Amino acid sequence: MKIALIGNPNVGKSTVFNALTGSNQQVGNWAGKTVERKSGSIHRDNDEIELIDLPGTYSLTAYSQEEIVTREYILREKPDVVMAMVDASNIERNLYLVLQILELTPRVVIGLNMMDLAKSAGITIHSNRLAQALNVPVVEIVAAKGKGINEFLTEAIRVGKLKSESVWDEIPYPDELEKRIQAMEQLLTGTIWASKYPLRWLAIKRLEQDPEIGQTWQSIPRSSQRNKKQDPCHDAGDPLKYVLQESVTLPGEELLQAYEIEGWSKDHFEMAVADAKYQYISKILPEFRVHENSAKPTWTDALDKWILSPIWGYPIMFLIISLVFWFSFVASAPLGGAVSEGMAWAAEVVVSLLQWSHVPEAAQSLVRDGIFAGVGAVLAFVPQIAIFFAFFSILQDSGYLARAAFLGDRFMQLMGLHGKSFFSLVSGFGCNVPAIMATRTLEDPKDRLITMLINPLIPCVPRLGVMSAVVAAFFPGSRGALIMISLLLISLLLVMFSALFLRKVVQQKERSAFVMELPLYHIPTLRNVLMPTWQKTYSFLKRAWTFILVASIVVWVLSSYPQGAPMNATWAGKMGEGLAFIGQPLGFDWRIMVAIVFGFTAKETTLSTLGILYGVAADASQSIAEAMTGAMTPLGAYTFLVVYMLYIPCLASVVTTYKESKSLGWTSFGIAYNLILSFVIGWLVFHGGKVLGF
Amino acid sequence: MLTSIMEVLSCKSLSMAQLAEELGYSVRELESALEQMEHMGYVRREVLGQACSPSCGKDPSSGECEGCSFLSPEGFAFWVLTERGQILSGQSSGK
Ligand SMILES: Nc1nc2c(ncn2[C@@H]2O[C@H](COP(=O)(O)OP(=O)(O)O)[C@@H](O)[C@H]2O)c(=O)[nH]1
Fold this sequence. Notes:
The complex is a heterodimer of chains A (694) and B (95).
Chain A: E1 2-7, H1 13-21, E2 25-29, E3 36-44, E4 47-53, H2 65-77, E5 81-87, H3 91-104, E6 108-113, H4 115-120, E7 123-125, H5 127-134, E8 138-140, H6 149-161, H7 175-188, H8 192-196, H9 199-207, E9 215-220, H10 222-228, E10 241-247, H11 253-261, H12 266-288, E11 289-291, H13 299-307, H14 313-330, H15 333-356, H16 361-379, H17 382-398, H18 400-415, H19 419-430, H20 432-437, H21 445-454, H22 461-474, H23 478-506, E12 514-517, H24 526-545, H25 547-560, H26 571-583, H27 590-599, H28 604-617, H29 624-631, H30 634-646, H31 651-661, H32 664-691
Parallel strand pairs in A: 1-4, 1-5, 5-6, 6-8
Antiparallel strand pairs in A: 2-3, 3-4, 7-11, 9-10
Helix pairs in contact in A: 3-12, 5-12, 7-9, 14-17, 14-23, 15-16, 16-25, 16-28, 17-22, 17-24, 18-19, 18-23, 19-21, 21-23, 22-29, 22-30, 23-30, 24-25, 25-28, 26-27, 27-28, 28-29, 30-32, 31-32
Chain B: H1 2-9, E1 14-15, H2 16-23, H3 27-40, E2 43-48, E3 76-81, H4 83-94
């Protein structure tokens, strides 16, 4: 007797196979396929049984070798009975395979495995009712514990010996489809194909234009295989080999063409047939499955009713983001102050040590006005940045960030961009470089290009950190949170505007939609919040000690030489003066222009440069924040923030844009677009603010 | 069920739960249907985010990006129609 063991991957097939065959196993490959073939022999009472472990598959279409092997085995070798293993905890998908097996042979016994997993998930499957629904025997097993395996085999042997075959109600197909299947059946009746395959199955496969139907494979007897090649590594357990003998087209070509004209392509047939099976499963499921907590809505569902609501979702999002910024500012203010004071104190101690050891004046100045002013300016805002990171991690770990991204898709619709673009944009809040790379998943090259070009407008976390630092200096307290939100709104509005504008420039086609998997809400764990917060803060600190240190030294040199010259006559001063004509309309003095230029390398450098350039001018007792606030009006600072947020993110992002777009033209366009946009918006803000009396 | 998923996927973006509500199936059923459709080549599951640029490298212990400073905040998983799926749903809507 020949018995085949079939099931989805990971249903526990190997466990059952091993339990039944023990050491009597032979392993080889299926002819011409890289799929393992396992068979074993079992003696049971007077029966000699050959058990074949067919490869794990989800369906019996012709999409993978596993599927073809499984299908061909059932059709050609005609096992006496099929043992179909089903995962009780994921029964929908598993029954899909069972329905397909039933189309090929009615001699099936179902082994309902993973009952323990199903039970712990609150799922009860009534095996007797399942048996009724499909009209096949069902045996409950827990393969991992060896329970029910023998009963499974006993039942299979019983069915294998039956003289008559049970019939099961065929899956009802919609009339439109049924009509066409029957027409094809008529054409195929009486052909040699109909003697090889079940007629209905053959007709459906013909309609789906299944590539493997119509191929004849010939089996080579074992003896001639041996003679052909004596391969010492060849596994003796491979009892059969097939060779492709001929491949012919089945009747019905004209009918297929006629259907094609009617709008029924092979894909349509395939989809309609699969659809009918899934609907059938969905219909019979309630007959045998009881899901204890399926009716009860989870609190994720309850929360999502509000959070994803098209009306309430946006105010809630606004509220949450406002809270995050408010906490980042109010909570961090004293900490930031303490770090600033600590830095000033450390600078004094170090400098007096240097004085005491008679280090040259220039070196003292480098340490005080270069390193401490520059790196210190960045470090003073570490508490703030760390708190912001912590909140960001909370949003992420709680599952809210994914929802915010999901809500953002609606904006994308307004802009006519692919929904997926939004995910690239959201990634931009972390770092623009990987975000630009994430556009790779957009198939449409124009979609990609637009998304790449607007991505720099999203302020990345380091940029947000510097911005929040400047905001904290100029707009202390809860006002700062409002300022940050207004900046973010400007950035989002410009992203929308730019997408619309670039769509005209690039001329891109319609967007498409998606279904998103949202994580369940959960209370963020301390570890999941503290770890990323620390990693990001550490990464920020590391840059401060390496990149920003070097930049600070360069800026110090530029702002100190020629020696003894007044600040505006140093190299940095001259450089700033050359750029002043650009900055003047926005009320920027030369220092800001120099800081902006240095910001091209990395955005934090802007802060250290400002620290040096203002710190040098101010007297030593002043903190950097105080020095800056003395030199700029709040409106000037806001204008600076706008420009700072919008002009190109950093050198790395430009290089990435070039690498990804492979176009120097578009990369230059992107840089120019960001620069022009940032200054134009800056000009509007500055003059608009003046008119409004700020 | 599969066809109605395709229809929705060709016109609007939803979350899994919203899709389940709209079509009247459970999320479990939808997932298994989507997986099958992916297997047949009509839809594709994509995960966005969680990328480091090749030049910046990953810290082996923490998995965070190094050099380009920050790992993108999150991996977002969603299902979209493949080109083949788009052709199919385009034909059905024209039918
Ligand atoms: N909880 C549980 N796990 C099982 C059961 N049967 C098998 N497993 C486990 O499921 C995993 C996959 O089993 P395996 O036999 O390799 O599956 P195959 O891919 O179908 O061959 C293994 O880790 C088994 O230990 C069961 O009834 N309950």
